[in-house]
Specification:
- By secondary structure, this protein is of the alpha+beta class.
- It folds into two domains: about 10-65, no CATH class; about 90-185, Ribosomal Protein L22, Chain A.
- Helix content is about 35%, strand content about 25%.
- The strands form three sheets. A five-stranded antiparallel sheet has the order 5-9-8-7-6, covered by helices on one side. The protein has a two-stranded antiparallel sheet with strand order 1-2.
- A hairpin with a 5-residue loop joins strand 7 (about 160-165) and strand 8 (about 170-175).
- Helix 1 packs antiparallel against helix 2 (about 20-40).
- The longest helix is centred in the first third of the chain and has 22 residues, at about 20-40.
- It is globular, with a radius of gyration of 17 Å.
Length: about 200
């Protein structure tokens, strides 16, 4: 967290007051960074960015300003912007979970078959990769994890993920950087070969 938080709107400040101190700090930090990033890109003052960012809901921009998505973990914030729909997710590589148990609970039979004969570390790496890709796809969809996690299917090393029930298809990019794994989901027919990623 920076020593000085970046500016947010008066409405966003009111939301901060209604949240717990920890959630309020995270909310202020993430929305301030989002406004700052959009300001640098669009040449507007941070508070002039037409952003709606209610707590617990996906952030959105006014028509004509594109689409935005955010994700954060304990020590990183990922902000995605695109002229078309976008979803992003980021997690720490050292996050603790039981890979095979998590996979059997949330992933498909075919996806679980890919887990066979993997070492513990290999299984954990694949499950984490699959998780961030699916969550990015769910954010692209503007859906809920509880009802969509097991509907999105991603085969290892594929450039696309698809939704079994609704027929959605997204182009996905997954990457490791330092101690994090992140994923970006874009429209299935996107001509973007590789998203531009800026690290700060």
């Amino acid at each position: 967290m920076p020593s000085k938080l970046l500016p947010i709107s008066s409405e966003e400040k009111k939301w901060v007051q209604k949240l717990t101190p920890r959630k309020g700090l995270t909310y202020h930090f993430s929305r301030g960074c989002l406004r700052h990033a959009m300001s640098s890109m669009m040449g507007l003052e941070p508070l002039d960015i037409p952003l709606k960012a209610y707590p617990g809901k996906p952030p959105s921009l006014a028509e004509g300003f594109g689409y935005v998505s955010m994700s954060h973990c304990s020590d990183a914030l990922l902000i995605g912007w695109s002229s078309a729909k976008i979803g992003v997710d980021i997690e720490r590589n050292d996050r603790h979970f039981q890979a095979h148990k998590l996979s059997k609970r949330f992933f498909s039979k075919d996806e679980n078959c890919e887990m066979e004969n993997l070492t513990t570390s290999q299984a954990k790496e694949l499950v984490l990769k699959r998780w961030v890709i699916k969550e990015a796809a769910i954010k692209w969809q503007n859906g809920k994890i509880s009802t969509n996690l097991n509907q999105w299917i991603w085969e290892n090393k594929s450039s696309f993920a698809y939704h079994k029930k609704l027929g959605y298809r997204v182009k996905v990019y997954e990457q490791n950087h330092d101690q994090w794994t992140y994923a970006i989901a874009l429209d299935g027919d996107s001509v973007t070969r590789k998203p531009i990623v800026c690290l700060h």
